[in-house]
Amino acid sequence: MNLSELTLDREGLTAAIACEDAAFEAALREKAYQVKVATVGPEVYLRGLIEISNRCVKNCLYCGIRRDIRCQRYELSEEEVLTTAQMAAERHFGSVVIQGGERTDAAFIRKITRLLKAIKSIDTGADPPLGITLSLGEQPREVYEEWFDAGAHRYLLRIESSNPDLFRRIHPSDPMHAYDRRLQALYDLKAVGYQAGTGAMIGLPSQTAEDMADDLLFYKEFDAPMVGMGPYNPHPETPLTLSGAHYPSVQRRFSLGLKMIALLRLLMPDINIAAATALEILDPRGREMGLLSGANVIMPNITPREQMVKYNLYDRKTLNASDVQDLINKGISIGFGRWGDSKHFVSGI
Ligand code: SAH
Ligand code: SF4
User: Fold this and answer.
1) 238 is a domain residue
2) Is residue 172 pLDDT above 90, yes or no?
3) CB 321 within 8 A of CB 342
4) Predicted TM-score (pTM) of this structure
5) Residue 177 DSSP class
6) Which member of 45, 250, 268, 293 has the greatest number of CB atoms within 10 A?
7) In a domain, 4, yes or no
8) How confident is the model at residue 338 (pLDDT cuts 50, 70, 90)?
9) Under 8 Å between Cβ of 144 and 192
10) DSSP element (H, E) containing 53
11) Atom 6 (ligand 1): residue with closest C-alpha?
12) 243-to-56, 99, 204, 205 alpha-carbon distances in Å
């Protein structure tokens, strides 16, 4: 396939995703990088990732911290979260993401509310107060409102797959894991006023090129101001892995991960696109390659080390804590001390 033949409709996106020609993929990534620089600029925004807890009430079939997996559970104390956020402020990260398993108990909800207020009052010197993104799953709309009022302004909730059939195959079949519930939560987030980010896994068992094209069109239809999507990485003890279902090779998932970023940058030029951690698992240069393919956000993991190793969504023994200095050395320009909100959201396009 030739880049000049690419169209951004379902047919064109599907053909681009299915095409395994290395020259085409390289040209596509290069073009997406140029579009990124021309629209959102060359700067990369940082979100210090704090993995608050691996306790989860859900049982997603692909996830290494699902309810029924036996593993050592942890929950960071309020003090630990604050010390970590403080460190992000000192390093001028501009924003933090608080991510964790889904919990709906009142104690947890109140704890997040207190933390949001406390993080907002951290002294950041000349920088604006830290921006806060939450990624804590599906919650009742009132909870989203409570957290928004306490200071969170972005929320990440992946649709996981925009194909309801595929979504059903990778989740238990009960109301708690229903596709419609997920979708409703995304619309609730938007209605409350969050910059609602979404995304899907790439390279899932039985996922087709059409499914992935539809994921891209879903982000467009939802008008997502930010997207964080990444390759599926099997965890050895999950039902999805143990079922023996076939999924693409490491190399293929990696190139699909980069290609999806590049195609999305062409489809939605002014949104924030994260170079997902899952890319780094597949290739040590994953994050940098993601940035060169059109991504403009990275989420260096700043969770205290001894807990980080327990947050095993997938097997990530190979993951090194992101080294921002390494990116600077490679000439990548970082938007220190800034929230780095999506241009798309700010301009309301
Ligand atoms: N509980 C929250 C946030 C933590 S999970 C939620 O589910 O939204 C964050 C993301 O990790 C999920 O959205 C999912 O896309 C991703 N994830 C989980 N298991 C994975 C796996 N095996 N490979 C790749 N990504 C995975
Ligand atoms: Fe829980 Fe999120 Fe994992 Fe699902 S993907 S089991 S909600 S942590």
Assistant:
1) yes
2) yes
3) no
4) 0.95
5) G
6) 293
7) no
8) confident
9) yes
10) strand 48-53
11) 137
12) 22, 28, 13, 10
Return the half-sphere exposure (C-beta side, CA atoms, 13 A cut-off) of residue 46: 26
Give the CATH number of the domain where residue 280 resides.
3.20.20.70
Domain boundaries, position 67: 22-348
Q: Give the tens place of pLDDT for each residue, 284-301.
A: 899 999 999 999 999 999
Residue 347 pLDDT grade (very low, low, confident, very high; cuts 50, 70, 90):
low
Residue nearest to atom 16 of ligand 1 (CA): 313
Amino acid identity at 191: A
- In degrees, to the nearest 5, what angle opens at C-alpha 204 toward C-alphas 199 and 208? 90
Backbone angles phi, psi at 154, to 5 degrees: -130, 150
Distance of CA 63 to the CA centre of its chain: 15
Number of structural domains found in the chain: 1
pLDDT for res 322: 52
| 29 three-state secondary structure | helix
d(CA 82, ligand 2 centre) in Å = 24
Q: What is the mean pLDDT of the chain?
A: 93
Q: Rounded to the nearest whole angstrom, what is the distance from the C-alpha of residue 233 to the centroid of ligand 1? A: 10
Q: Give the closest residue (by CA) to ligand 2 atom 6.
A: 66
Average pLDDT over residues 85-103: 95
Cβ-contact 201, 229 below 8 angstroms = yes
Average pLDDT score over residue span 41-49: 93
- In a domain, residue 10? The reply is no
The answer to whether residue 318 scores a pLDDT higher than 70 is no
73 lies in a domain? yes
Query: How many C-beta atoms surround the C-beta of residue 346 within 10 A?
Result: 12
Tokens representing 148 are 């928004």
CA 331 to ligand 1 centroid distance, Å: 31
- In percent, how much of the chain has pLDDT > 70? 96
Lining ligand 2 with CB less than 6 A are: 56, 58, 60, 63, 65-66, 101-102, 137
